[in-house]
Amino acid sequence: MTFTTIGYEIRDGVAQLTLNRPDKMNAINATLHDELQTALAQASGDSTVRVLLVTGAGDRAFCAGLDLHARGEDSAMDPGRLQERSIHPERTLVARFVGFEKPLVAAVNGAATGAGLAFALSADIVLAADTARFGTAHVHLGLPVLDMLGYLLPRRVSAGAAAEMAFTGRLVGADEALRIGLADRVLPLDRLKMEASALCAAIAAQAPLSLRFSKLALRRAGRDSYEDYARFERYIFGVAYGSEDAKEAIRARREKRAPQFKGF
């Protein structure tokens, strides 16, 4: 499929998804919304993809949220789409990011606001340029915090930090984002995507089943009781230990070579 508002390419197990409306700060119109949905579905179902890297084009913005200037069929907020989101909240774009089952890395190259902030916080690892800014401006529009940020923010930062961002709508710079936990690493803008690609390559070199199970395990932290988590851990260990990739890892270690994982 040919995309017009995103870039999507796969190389050595890494799918890179680039929001590509730099003149609009990569804000979400109807086309970008639908193409992101398609790309996420492709990356999820493609067995050659082991990790997804999400970033934005240009150096101004990762994603500035919804394009509030889009109208009619160009708007991602038309009545039909709103009705679909009300009936099937699990199909929303942010929900697709949150529910993505493979490792997800965000390289935040500029402003990440509204839904753009939600995309970033849906990632397992957030790398930020030193020029990045994070925030939600819903309060300035007379709206409550949306885009699942009421769910995502308190899982990244303290309750007080989440409340301050939601109640004031102020933007958080890269250094503060690192300090409060919005970002995991801050890098110079000109090194951001290179470092993100290197990180994704290191992740993609691992066994796919191990990656998926590790992501599931990390996502259950703080949700399961100790007993439920222990049962889950025993289950994923049993499945993974019996996999061909686990056997290949042992063979490779004995033979002092790099393992060749196949995903089963």
Give the arrangement of secondary structure elements:
Elements: E1 6-11, E2 14-19, H1 30-45, E3 51-56, E4 61-63, H2 79-87, H3 93-98, E5 104-108, E6 111-113, H4 115-121, E7 125-129, E8 133-135, H5 149-156, H6 159-168, E9 172-173, H7 174-180, E10 185-187, H8 189-204, H9 208-220, H10 226-241, H11 244-255
Parallel strand pairs: 2-3, 3-5, 4-6, 5-7, 6-8, 7-10
Antiparallel strand pairs: 1-2, 8-9
Helix pairs in contact: 4-5, 5-6, 9-10
Quick description:
The protein has 264 residues and is of the alpha/beta class. It has helices at residues 30-45, 79-87, 93-98, 115-121, 149-156, 159-168, 174-180, 189-204, 208-220, 226-241, 244-255; strands spanning 6-11, 14-19, 51-56, 61-63, 104-108, 111-113, 125-129, 133-135, 172-173, 185-187.
